[in-house]
Specification:
Elements (H helix, E strand, L loop, with lengths): L2 H23 L5 H16 L12 H11 L6 H15 L3 H4 L20 H4 L9 H7 L2 H8 L4 H4 L10 H8 L2 H8 L16 H7 L3 H10 L20 H6 L2
Helix pairs in contact: 1-4, 2-3, 2-4, 7-10, 8-11, 10-11, 10-12, 12-13
Length: 247
């Protein structure tokens, strides 16, 4: 075995111990530190980032993708060294304080052992859920925190892969408190059109979500808006109380 091969073997062993340390104690680190570990791990095990950037409302997935993609053409060996160095800077005595883990087996779906984005192969965990997931669940605390992101004003009027914006999802689900959180984001377009030209008021009206219709009307939504097929908001409403709100 050449000196280079022996050096690589030693590096791989150290990298393996480091990943096990992180997997066991990842709750000791801040999110930005874990993102760096994730990026080095992906680069070391999968090479250069070659997957599409996650959807605009998948904030966690986009953060992971960006961290990995930023490593560019960094070699496998450099990535392993980067991983170990990052850990040593944060926990200088990690390699001497860790327990014997010769029989340790990574748990399926664990933070550091996965080799692809979690949402591609496992049910969404709290860390991997998107803004749309929070809207569907009516998870107000998580949604409020996500909407407070500094980049949200630049994303609030974007459409996702299904051709909907956050305001459409909120109006569709019928939770007025969720809708109010979305409406509170700076720069939001109250009459944002989906891929078919429908506004949030179209969605709330057609779904029979009276409270959301009221919130949108009070906020000044255009009651005369027509979609790409010429359908007015009133045309898609079947609830008498909603028709009254739209007058």
């Amino acid at each position: 075995m050449s000196d280079f091969e022996e050096e690589v073997d030693l590096l791989e062993e150290e990298f393996g111990r480091a990943t096990k340390f992180i997997e066991r104690g990842h709750d000791q680190f801040e999110q930005k530190e874990l993102l760096k570990f994730y990026a080095f791990y992906k680069q070391a095990t999968s090479g250069k980032c070659d997957v599409p950037k996650p959807g605009i409302f998948n904030m966690a997935g986009r953060a992971k993708w960006t961290a990995w993609n930023d490593l560019g053409d960094l070699s496998k060996e450099q990535a392993m060294k980067g991983y170990v160095k990052h850990l040593s800077q944060l926990k200088p005595n990690w390699d001497t304080s860790s327990e014997d883990d010769s029989d340790y087996k990574p748990q399926k779906g664990s933070w550091v052992s996965v080799s692809t984005f979690a949402h591609e192969e496992d049910p969404a965990t709290a860390a991997d859920k998107t803004l749309v997931d929070f809207i569907k669940e009516g998870n107000l605390p998580e949604l409020e925190q996500a909407l407070a992101s500094p980049e949200m004003p630049s994303l609030i009027n974007e459409l996702d892969d299904e051709g909907l914006g956050l305001i459409h999802w909120a109006a569709d689900r019928g939770n007025e408190h969720v809708l109010k959180l979305v409406l509170a984001v700076p720069g939001r377009d109250l009459d944002l059109r989906d891929s078919g030209g429908q506004t949030a008021l179209h969605y709330a009206s057609s779904c029979g979500n009276r409270d959301c219709v009221r919130v949108l009307v009070e906020a000044g939504a255009d009651k005369s808006a027509r979609d790409d097929e010429g359908e007015r908001v009133e045309d898609v409403a079947f609830d008498a109380a909603i028709k009254e709100l739209l007058k």
